[in-house]
Amino acid sequence: MGTRAVEDAGRDERAGKALAATGVTVRPAVPGDAVGRVRPRWVVLPETAGEIAAVMRVSAEHDLAVVPAGGGTKLHWGAPPSRCDILLDTCCLNAVIEHVAGDLVVRAQAGLTLEALREALAAAGQELALDVPVPGTTVGGLVATALAGPRRFRYGTARDLLIGITVVLPDGTVARSGGKVVKNVAGYDVGKLFTGSYGTLGVVVDATFRLHPLPADRAWVTAGFEPPGPLGDADRAAGLGAALAAVSGSQAEPSAVELDWPDPDGPCVMAVLLEGTAADTRAAAVRGLLGPDSDLRPTPPPWWGRLPEPPAAQKGEAPESRGREDEVLLELRITPPRVPGVLAEVRRAAGDLGVRAAVRGAAASGVLHIALHAGTDAGTVPGTDAGTDAGTDAGTDRGTDGGTDAGAAARFVARLRAEAEDGGGRLLVVAAPEEVARRAGRWGRVGALTLMRRIKERFDPDGRMSPGRSVGGT
Amino acid sequence: MSALESLTARLRDALPPDALITDPVRLRTYECDGLTVHRATPGVVVLPDSAEQVAAVVGLCAEHGVPFVARGSGTGLSGGALPRTDGVLIVTSRMRRILEVDVPGRRAVVEPGVTNLAITEAVRDQGLYYAPDPSSQQICSIGGNVAENSGGAHCLKYGFTVNHVLAVEIVTPDGEIVELSEQDAGYDLLGAFIGSEGTLGIATKITVRLSRAPEAVTTLLAAFTGIEAGGRAVSAVIAAGVVPAAIEMMDALAIEAAEAAVRCEYPEGAGAVLVVELDGPKAAVDREFAEVERLCRESGAFEIRIAASAEERAAIWKGRKSAFAAVGRISPAYIVQDGVVPRTALPGVLAGIDRLQEEYGIRVANVFHAGDGNLHPLVLFDDAVPGEEERAEAVSGLILDLCIEHGGSITGEHGVGVDKSRYMPRMFSADDLDAMQLVRCAFDPRGLSNPGKVFPTPRLCGEVPGVRRGVHPLVEAGLAEQF
Amino acid sequence: MDPELIKDCVHCGFCLTTCPTYVLWGEEMDSPRGRIHLMGQHVGGTPMTGEMAGHFDACLGCMACVTACPSGVRYDRLIEETRAVVEREHERTPDERAVRAMVFALFPYRRRLRAMRLPMAMSKRLQPFLERVNPSLGAMAELAPPAARPVRLPPLVRARRRARARVGLLTGCVQGEFFPQVNAATARVLALEGCDVVIPPRQGCCGALSVHSGRPEEARRFARRTIAAFERAGVDAVVVNAAGCGSSMKEYADLLAADPAWRERAERLRTLDLAEFLVRLGPVAERHPLPVSVAYHDACHLAHAQGIRAEPRELLRGVPGLELREIAESAICCGSAGTYNLFRPEPARELGDRKAERVLATGADLLVSANPGCTMQIAAAVRRAGKGEIRVAHTAEVLDASLRGLDPGALGRAPRTGRAKARAV
Ligand SMILES: Cc1cc2nc3c(=O)[nH]c(=O)nc-3n(C[C@H](O)[C@H](O)[C@H](O)COP(=O)(O)OP(=O)(O)OC[C@H]3O[C@@H](n4cnc5c(N)ncnc54)[C@H](O)[C@@H]3O)c2cc1C
Ligand SMILES: Cc1cc2nc3c(=O)[nH]c(=O)nc-3n(C[C@H](O)[C@H](O)[C@H](O)COP(=O)(O)OP(=O)(O)OC[C@H]3O[C@@H](n4cnc5c(N)ncnc54)[C@H](O)[C@@H]3O)c2cc1C
Ligand code: SF4
Ligand code: SF4
């Protein structure tokens, strides 16, 4: 053992003792606790804001990096942390603190799962109008990842419904902003900063949301469309574009307009949700816009509200399962009228680069997710040798992770990103193997990168909170 | 030469001659915004025409360490645009071009001096509108709306400015032009900037979402004998799962004022009136409207009027929209207060206000956004009667305490500005305020952007919260004052 | 400047966007709120500086701010008082003085105006030269309408059906000289609707120009003469077809407040705008179809000073076949504002251009308004824009054409020449 290692071990021991002295439940980490391959040393299970603060003070004193975790469903999203000593598990903070039905407001702890929250609210005929995410998602994770499902078209995302928040800052300060009234402009909205922070600014302890009455009725209208693209096939894109414009601008007031396109060579499906009073009459109006081949259904299509499954290597095979470490998940953010055109580019790029892609998302909001199977071996993927830029370094770019062609995936990202950013949009790499993310860059253009870095420096000057997870290495 | 004088010399070179005001008589016309109790003559006023000019001015301010304050139309009601005598007032009233209207993409890009209503007027023919509708919409600037996160009567259903702004180009306090977009990955800086009251920089270009004008709009006026019955109706409507576009309430005194000002002809003998507006798909509105009407009757409405045409709707709204300015007709002077309480706490708070009226011998007219518990008590007084103004101010402050006590907020839409900064510590702990200060320090470490607003006595950015450690270098250098 | 009136302003800014000078320059000092603030400064002891006077002079007196103000601030009274103070306390440049002297020596006097008609028509050709000497002279030449054939109206026009009222008709100085056909049309319309119309031959200027320029003594002299003339006529009401004149006549009682006897006489005189009067009277004469599209322009002194916006529109809509189109930014002044285009030609011209652009955008056949100044101003702006001669008419002329079943094509064309022009708008 070198002196260095001895010193490290000594420090670990002191830090471990300090952690134990806080009285917070601590256990040593096991391999399953890894956050994007980085294995923490301890897992802490605080039960109050005070306990989180105590952990954060120890972290400050001993320079320990902390990564908060909710359900752990999306811990491999964002960049992996550059270091991680403590995994702060919020599972014990799982209470509904206050639900005043008459005010349509709820305050819930960060570790509460949205299923539990939904149940509690449904009893009063209310809901948090953010869509049912993957099982196990917590309030804190929802805020930190700022993701939203289909009904963002009507209700916006977490930032739009969040009215108050309590956080513990990296130095152990417990701070609150906003409140429990819907309308409030006193002071800065720190809660907004925490949406999309991926745990890099502090730990969310609880959040207060604006609620909506549970809609009396729901109805879905679905319709199939020819696949957008390839080049020159403007009509197909126009058909989808016109339908999208007609539905999203329709007086029927849809709550969501989703698109599912599991295979770029196959058709895509549009699904429209109508909810609330007279949902049936309004659904009929939407059918009028989508034509006689559209269907009216009382339940959502099976893919509704889920991220796209990564396509299988081979056409015709069942999609792969979610949540693999090597999954590539992209998020496209564009203005809605550009959706058909950009989808055509997805198809072209996928064809040229030999990448298999599945697309799904809130078309009327211009937010679409793309899952990739980046191709395993060039021979089985149609078109790998078609495009010259795909062909040239297909062999050399072969990534190290499970045979994923990191080069092709990265080039796909670059091409689509150029297309998106050209019209003021963005393409984000939500999840990807290191190699793909490194080559393509995770976040694309960020107008205010300097300001984001400065925010991070102010909140977390020692870089102990989920270091390196978010934009610009914050 | 003072910093301001040498800065002024540089501004003369950087700006066209008619964009710089130094004449004292002219400067004084900028001494206050819509809240006239706070006044200060600005050191100089600039009227830039472009983001580049704003950046040039702010850059020079940063170089000279001179504070600056943004001003839109000067309708703010919290003294947010109160100038600094030792600083520059940057007025956006010449930046009023609508740069782009994207009808299919439902967005418009505008300069900050464009008025809220001008956006709607520009797109109305396309069946679109800009949803947030502060009562001052005909004149308040969109830049001011962004700074205050303004709301309006219809924000119950449609949300506030923050829910309708897609991107803002800002000039940072260092004089750099940066875009904050909802499309960017990372922290929601756009959301943090909106509502920051000009303390994080100046908005120079704003991209707003345009909404489709609803298919049907129905408006109802219900008259009650008293405010309690009106409140019951509001609760009943909300409990029924209806989300109206707006529910507004006025009490007897506010009705009297509106009657005097605009002869709105609300039902005789009403102790409270409720204005309920529903909008959306016709099928849904019709059904919900019948429900609302029934609930109002069951709660004790003695007269209900339903607007059958746009004119009749305007007539119903006329009284409500004129209410602020109208109290001028029944009282020589008044204070407009803005507080929020959870809706369920409304009866308790209104009873509390009644007690205050009696105790202090001061009349209070109540006008409020009943749907979201946003109160606008108008505290009336006669400035010719010695002591009455002081009592009115006491009442006005105590109303805010009532709001805080009931878990509410000291401002729902008018902002903190200079007027309510002293109430911030009653609503937030020192730690809460320190966390907010971190945001300020990231954007504006030297504290030059609208200093003295929102926060009572901010720590300096070099300081570590908690234990104070000696004299701050800025204080030592005479650049800042430690409170 | 009454401090109590100044205090009524709560600084809400609701008046800003309708103020033409704020629309042009976007400065607080040239907005109603800013001007009221300047008045407050002066009352508080700040002397009348050149800068201050400049901002008051720049006010067009369009009273759009009065319409917009929810607090009922009497800006009309305030600016009138202020103008008098400016005239008293502020030393003008010799140039300014010369132009003002000329205007006040000329406009309120019919005979002098008549004498000027020919030279003004000639001066049109000299306009570029005059413009260089003094922009005000240039403006005067540019605005001059073509000399009209004089129309002599009899002292009494009898009702053409059972008489429902006996009214007096104010002929106005500018209206009477440059647009005599409007007065003739007014008299015919009134007669066809059942009114005996008395037109006192010796009526002079109503005093409007003097009131709006801070010359109250002169204004009172004119007012007393006008009141006396109509008292002698023994009428139920005085009908006025020129917006500017109507608004000042309605204020006679305020103007003469210092003299109780005259104030009472002023109060007894019932003055109504033509449109207001006709709507109250109710139509009886048959309207013949008039297939024409009309852009109606709100004259400030009608829309803002008298609050008459709905009535003229109602009358126009009552004409079968007539299509009424709204002009964007209708509340904003065209820049004519009485003598403003003579004293402050540059902003007046800018406002005129702005208005002309929006008028042309309606694509209507005919521009209709109730004020000769506006019509002259907008027509000049259209000419400047190289869009030729725009067809303009007074509300009275349109009604006259409909009541008499005339061809709409004749409306708004100079009757003297009868030259057929292509659709000008
Ligand atoms: C198949 C699929 C479908 C989905 N569909 C939807 C959908 O329809 N709608 C939707 O809204 N979302 C959807 N999501 C996204 C998912 O809901 C979010 O990823 C989830 O909100 C993450 O929550 P978590 O509790 O599992 O957080 P974790 O995975 O534990 O953490 C995610 C991130 O949040 C941070 N974090 C967690 N808790 C805290 C805390 N208390 N304080 C600070 N930072 C914290 C972590 O550090 C980490 O960076 C979907 C995800 C998947 C995989
Ligand atoms: C009669 C009346 C009724 C009102 N009704 C409502 C209402 O219903 N709802 C409501 O929310 N408000 C209302 N208000 C308040 C006011 O109109 C709003 O706060 C409005 O947004 C202010 O806009 P402004 O352009 O006048 O801003 P100003 O008063 O000029 O400035 C307000 C604040 O914004 C900052 N600011 C201005 N422009 C910029 C910019 N470009 N970048 C950064 N900061 C800037 C200033 O520094 C200041 O702090 C009302 C006011 C009045 C007088
Ligand atoms: S009268 Fe007209 S020009 Fe004068 S301040 Fe009022 S709106 Fe402006
Ligand atoms: S609208 Fe009336 S009260 Fe408001 S600023 Fe203008 S004049 Fe003053």
UniProtKB/TrEMBL annotation, chain A:
Its cofactor is FAD. Pfam families: FAD-oxidase_C, FAD_binding_4. Gene3D superfamilies: 3.30.465.10. InterPro entries: FAD-bd_oxidored_4_C, FAD-bd_PCMH, FAD-bd_PCMH-like_sf, FAD-bd_PCMH_sub2, FAD-linked_Oxase-like_C, Oxid_FAD_bind_N. This is FAD-binding oxidoreductase. Keywords: FAD, Flavoprotein, Oxidoreductase. Residues 290-325, 381-403 are annotated as: Disordered. Residues 298-311 have a biased composition (Pro residues). Residues 381-394 have a biased composition (Low complexity). It comes from the Bacteria. Residues 35-214 form the FAD-binding PCMH-type domain. It comes from Microbispora oryzae. The keyword Flavoprotein applies. PROSITE patterns: FAD_PCMH. One of its GO terms (molecular function) is oxidoreductase activity. The keyword Oxidoreductase applies. SUPFAM superfamilies: FAD-binding/transporter-associated domain-like, FAD-linked oxidases, C-terminal domain.
From TrEMBL, chain B:
One of its GO terms (molecular function) is oxidoreductase activity. Keywords: FAD, Flavoprotein, Oxidoreductase. It comes from Microbispora oryzae. Its cofactor is FAD. InterPro entries: FAD-bd_oxidored_4_C, FAD-bd_PCMH, FAD-bd_PCMH-like_sf, FAD-bd_PCMH_sub2, FAD-linked_Oxase-like_C, FAD-linked_OxidoTrans_Type4, Oxid_FAD_bind_N, Vanillyl_alc_oxidase_C-sub2. This is FAD-binding protein. Residues 38-213 form the FAD-binding PCMH-type domain.
UniProtKB/TrEMBL annotation, chain C:
It catalyses: glycolate + A = glyoxylate + AH2; (R)-lactate + A = pyruvate + AH2. PROSITE patterns: 4FE4S_FER_1, 4FE4S_FER_2. This is Glycolate oxidase iron-sulfur subunit. It is an enzyme of class 1 (oxidoreductase). Binds 2 [4Fe-4S] clusters. Keywords: 4Fe-4S, Electron transport, Iron, Iron-sulfur, Metal-binding, Repeat, Transport. GO terms for molecular function: 4 iron, 4 sulfur cluster binding; glycolate dehydrogenase activity; metal ion binding. It comes from the Bacteria. Its cofactor is [4Fe-4S] cluster. Its EC number is 1.1.99.14. The keyword Oxidoreductase does not apply. Component of a complex that catalyzes the oxidation of glycolate to glyoxylate. The keyword DNA repair does not apply. InterPro entries: 4Fe4S_Fe-S-bd, 4Fe4S_Fe_S_CS, Cys_rich_dom, Glc_ox_4Fe-4S, Helical_ferredxn. Residues 1-29, 50-81 form the 4Fe-4S ferredoxin-type domain. Gene3D superfamilies: Alpha-helical ferredoxin (1.10.1060.10), Divalent-metal-dependent TIM barrel enzymes (3.20.20.150). It holds the Pfam family CCG.
